[in-house]
Amino acid sequence: MIETTQPIGQLLQQWEQERLLTPLDRHFALQMAAIHRDDSPLFILICALLSRQLSAQHACLPLAQLNLANPMLERSSQIQINAPLTTLLNAIAALPAVGDGKDNTPMVLDGSRLYLKQYYDFELRVAKRLKQMAAQILPVPAGTAAALAQLFPPMADSKDTDWQKVATATAICQRFAVITGGPGTGKTTTVTKLLMLLCLNKEMTIRLVAPTGKAAARLTESIKASKRRLLEQLSKASPDKAEASDLNAEVIARIPEDAATLHRLLGVIPGSHKFRHHKDNPLHLDLLIVDEASMVDLPMMDRLLDALPPHARLILLGDQDQLASVEAGAVLADICAGLRSGDNWQMRYSADFATQLSQLCHTDMAGLISSNPGIGNNLCMLRHSHRFATDAGIGILANAVNRSDKADIQQTWQQGHHELTWLDHGNGDKSRGLTPLLTQACEYYRHYLEVIHRPDFTAEQIIDRYNAFRILCATRAGEFGVDGINAHMTAALKQAGFIQPGQEFYPGRPIIIHSNDYNLGLFNGDIGIILPCNDSQRLMAHFIQADGSVLKVLPARLPGHETCFAMTVHKSQGSEFATVALVLPPRPSPAQRQLLTKELIYTAITRAKTHFICLGSQKVFEAACLHPTVRASGLAQRLWSQNE
Question: Is the pLDDT of residue 239 over 60?
Fold first, then answer.
């Protein structure tokens, strides 16, 4: 069944040297072989490949696409699997270390998907809990249709469906709801209006959370801004309608606006992977809203659902087209998978729920009735972006990348949109594009560096200026990764006289935290700036917290961190900047090419509000746009299949 030209152990070592496997993958396979006393090539191979899948953020190993999932099998002439799929599955199922999920075996074979038992359990529990919650339709308070009409007045000269209104109605009716959409489609505005309706009808304990501290701070800012706009909208209503309505400033004031991180919500126990809140000690809340849900991995979603009290409602907000979590799974994408119809997205409602939405929203939803709605009643996708004008280059490019439309991508760059700037690496001269990027970046960063010693500027104002621009990198290592660009940027700013990096901590140095410190209240991904305190001129690291306050930390007490003139695209999720510069490697290695995906490019573009710069080559940019992320998982099938 498995034919090799050399011992399997030597082959694993060769793959590790070629960086097709990690040292962890090889040692896991050899350790499993020793524990189970099975040194057969088949057993060692599937252990190594399954570990590699988890390293690459997949939840399982799809045996039906074994060669596609594992490039070492495609490239290597030293190993061959000479057996049809059925024979291979039977042989794997017969291994003592492999079970069907009912026994406590380290691996589980489910159909043609092979799991580590822990991840099989994660997936099974998440699917079961979400389907249970999705089946619970809640009673709709009287007057909801009238309140929706007031909060979402008809748009002038538009016959299009108001999907924000539909999303609000969906979340009112369901115990579990998902509101998804791209940047600027109004997810936060929608949820703020939803919260107003919920606060109007009953007292509720509501918690707002996001995966990272930065995303939590942005959610707080967005909710506050939405509340201000809502007050303005209601104040413009005619006096007779305002007096007759229960929607008023007092109700808006009850809308919560302080967001926390998921880790803080669940209660981290230092030195343990467990949390204080779980099934036997559930969270004290009636409604949980999770923003940037695309960043929530499979294990975290399992722990979050486990900690929800039986009566609680759950609303997930996020962009299903963004990068998935940095750990295993793509939960939000799997939840939304059933809405994909070819290259398009199509809502799927049951006949009863379509009728209910039509009545609440005064919109005909009959055309969206499906004979197999799955969990479609619980989802709503927002389509119209209010951030980008219809002719704005950033929005056009993001849409073209999202569709992997090579012709439209090329045309968008060629049209000369003022919001888009292309810097080419050039042929052979690697500084050709880098030099102008560093020059532009110095000008952007000058705006915050030139005021760090001025007493009339607060830390909040300085950090706000710093956050107007950011360099994003696709990779960490190398000259065009985070490490290299940060070094180039530090040297360029020093040469320009904007910084004096003569010591580790100097005024103006931006830093990003790499590890959690629950005593200090600093978390992985938090960004701050080293600034002198106005009273003593002592250098302190300044961080903006989720509630808008400034946290000051002595540099010596900081957890693991690094300079942050540049950061990875992954770390930028949940953030917005006026201008973004994306740096792509000129000649990516095979490992780097795996990182360069459509979702990475789309996420980088949509971090920019007014200007997007890209340093790269046309070939690398377009190849990335045509390379979608595919996470191996059975969650979508479990959620959408009637047989699961």
Answer: no
Pairing of the two strands 98-99 and 107-110: parallel
Q: How far is CA 354 from the centre of its chain?
A: 30
Please state, in angstroms and rounded to a whole number, the distance separating the CA atoms of residues 109 and 76: 26
- Within 503-599, strands assigned E span 510-513, 527-532, 539-544, 550-553, 561-563, 566-568, 577-583
Does residue 312 register a pLDDT over 90?
A: yes
- Report the pLDDT value the prediction gives residue 429, as an integer from 0 to 100: 57
DSSP string, 72-120: HHHH-SSEEE-S-HHHHHHHHHTSTTEE-SSS--SEEEETTEEEEHHHH
Which residues in 164-244 belong to E strands, given as ranges?
A: 176-181, 206-210
Burial 271-307 (b: 16+ CB within 10 A, else e): eeeebebeeeeebebbbbbbbbbbbbbbbbbbbbbbb
Q: Give me Rg for the CA atoms of the chain.
A: 26
Beta strands in 463-600 (DSSP E): 469-473, 510-513, 527-532, 539-544, 550-553, 561-563, 566-568, 577-583
Q: In this structure, is the dihedral angle defined by the CA atoms of residues 353, 355, 356 and 361, taken in order, positive or negative?
A: positive
Could you tell me where the DSSP H helices lie in 111-160?
A: 117-134, 144-151
CB 407 within 8 A of CB 457: no
Question: Cα(561)–Cα(513) distance, rounded to whole angstroms?
Answer: 4
Rounded-to-integer distance, Cα 380 and Cα 390, Å: 22
What does the alpha-carbon distance between residue 530 and residue 507 come to, in Å, rounded to a whole number?
Answer: 5
User: Could you tell me the two tokens for 104?
Assistant: 């406590």
* Tens digits of residue pLDDT in 419-437: 899 998 866 555 678 889 9
How many C-beta atoms lie closer than 10 Å to residue 560's C-beta?
11
Q: Which helix (H) or strand (E) holds 304?
A: helix 298-307
Q: What is the model's pTM? A: 0.84
H/E stretch holding 264: helix 262-266
Band (pLDDT 50/70/90 cuts) for residue 133 is very high
CA–CA distance from 276 to each of 267, 315, 429, 489 (Å)? Answer: 5, 22, 55, 42
Please give the full DSSP string across 309-349, using - where no structure is assigned.
Answer: -TT-EEEEEE-TTS---SSS--HHHHHHGGGEETTEE---B
Residues 32-81: pLDDT tens digits? 999 998 888 889 888 989 998 888 888 999 988 776 445 556 555 567 67
Distances 299 to 119, 152, 199, 263, 304 between C-alpha atoms, Å: 8, 37, 31, 13, 9
At 521, list the tokens: 């209240």
CB 570 within 8 A of CB 326: yes
DSSP state of 202: S
Q: Exposed, middle or buried by CB within 10 Å (0-12, 13-18, 19+), for 405? A: middle
Q: Please report, to the nearest 10 degrees, the dihedral formed by the alpha carbons of residues 125, 126, 129, 135 taken in order.
A: -130
Task: Give bridge partners of residue 527 from the DSSP assignment.
Answer: 512
| Cα distance between residue 529 and residue 488, in whole Å | 19
Q: Which two three-digit tokens encode residue 479?
A: 């000259």
Instruction: Specify which residues 115 forms β-bridges with.
Output: 108
- Distance in angstroms (rounded) separating the CA atoms of residues 186 and 339: 20
Distance CA 209, CA 262 (A): 6
